[in-house]
C-alpha cells in the first residue's frame, strides 16, 4: 500500500469509530524517528494512544503526521507521531480496524509539520497556520 493512502485510511477508520460510538486507538512504534510521546508509557517499544475527542485535544492528522495533546499521569503533554510509525488504528471496544505493515525505520526522521508564519509563545505553530486534513467529529 502506498504511504500516501495511510492518512486517508486513518481518517476513515477514525470517523467510523466516532460514528459508531467507539473509542479510536492507534498503535505506534515509539522508536520510529520523529515520534514524540512521553517516556515510560510504552510496552515493548509500542504505545497505544487513545485519540478520541474526550482523551485528546487539538487532534490533527495532516502532512504525514498525527499531532494532539493528551494527559499522561494528569499532566497535559504534546504528542507528535509520523504516519509511518502507525502500526494500526482500531476501535477499543470491538478491536475492529486496520493494521499496517511493520514500519521500516528510516535513517533520518521525516520533516516535522511545517509551522506557519507565526508561532505561539511555546514555539508551536498555530493549528490554523498548517495546511491540514482535519478529522471529522
From TrEMBL:
This is ClpXP protease specificity-enhancing factor. It comes from the Bacteria. The lineage of its organism: Bacteria, Pseudomonadati, Pseudomonadota, Acidithiobacillia, Acidithiobacillales. Keywords: Hydrolase, Protease.
Amino acid at each position: 500500500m502506498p504511504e500516501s493512502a495511510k492518512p486517508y485510511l486513518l481518517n476513515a477508520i477514525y470517523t467510523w469509530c466516532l460514528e459508531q460510538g467507539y473509542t479510536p486507538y492507534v498503535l505506534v512504534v515509539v522508536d520510529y524517528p520523529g515520534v514524540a510521546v512521553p517516556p515510560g508509557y510504552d510496552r515493548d517499544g509500542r504505545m497505544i494512544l487513545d485519540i478520541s475527542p474526550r482523551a485528546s485535544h487539538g487532534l490533527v492528522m495532516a502532512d504525514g503526521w498525527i499531532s494532539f495533546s493528551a494527559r499522561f499521569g494528569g499532566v497535559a503533554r504534546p504528542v507528535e507521531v509520523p504516519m509511518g510509525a502507525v502500526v494500526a488504528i482500531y476501535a477499543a471496544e470491538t478491536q475492529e480496524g486496520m493494521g499496517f505493515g511493520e514500519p521500516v525505520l528510516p535513517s533520518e526522521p521525516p520533516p516535522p509539520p511545517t509551522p506557519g508564519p507565526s508561532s505561539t509563545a511555546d514555539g508551536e505553530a498555530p493549528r490554523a497556520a498548517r495546511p491540514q486534513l482535519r478529522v471529522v467529529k
